[in-house]
Amino acid sequence: MESFCIIDGLNWINIFGLITVVLMLIPNIWYAIKFKGQETKCECCRSMYILEQIGRYGSMFLMAFNIGIAEFGFASEKHFAAYFIANIVLLVAYWFVYALYFHKRTNWKSMALAIIPSCIFLIDGILLRHYLLVSFAIMFAFSHICITRKDSCEINSNTQQQS
To answer: Which residues pair with 71 in a beta bridge?
Structure first.
């Protein structure tokens, strides 16, 4: 149960992790196209943004590619089933919240869109016993949620000032 790949000899690709990453990226790409040029309002320190990007890209890379460092695979078939079900449930929730977010952007939707991918990265790392992925996931979760929270607070205060 350690590696999943379509072609023998390519056990460095985690096909389920790759599919999960692609499915997480689709609504983000769609959002970037639909709201082209929109910048975040958050005035967080530059190091927080750097931490977020390191955590994000590190997590996505480690979900898709098995590099052989601090990863042990699933402990049992039950862990694989939990991984599979958790990814499906969280991806459906992510896409659902994104659909709501496209209709009307609110703080709770922004926070959900920060928390759900953090949970996907963390759960996958824990169930795969991939401790490097868990480390990157924690880095991403902390910084992404902080940035999203600060951005949501500033959007909220700007809306109240305009009223």
So the answer is: 130
Is this prediction's pTM over 0.70?
yes
Q: 37: alpha, beta or left, given left = phi > 0 and alpha = psi -120 to 50?
A: left
Q: What angle do CA 16, 71, 146 make, to 5 degrees?
A: 75
The whole-angstrom separation of Cα 140 and Cα 114 is 9
Pull the structure tokens for residue 126: 């824990």
Give the amino acid at 142. F
> 143-158, pLDDT tens digit by residue?
999 998 887 665 555 4
Q: How far apart are CA 106 and CA 7, in angstroms?
A: 43
- As a whole number, mean pLDDT of residues 111-126 equals 96
Task: Judge contact between 31 and 98, C-beta under 8 A.
Answer: yes
Residue that is written with structure tokens 């927080």 in the block: 48
| Pairwise CA distance, residues 151 & 163, whole Å | 19
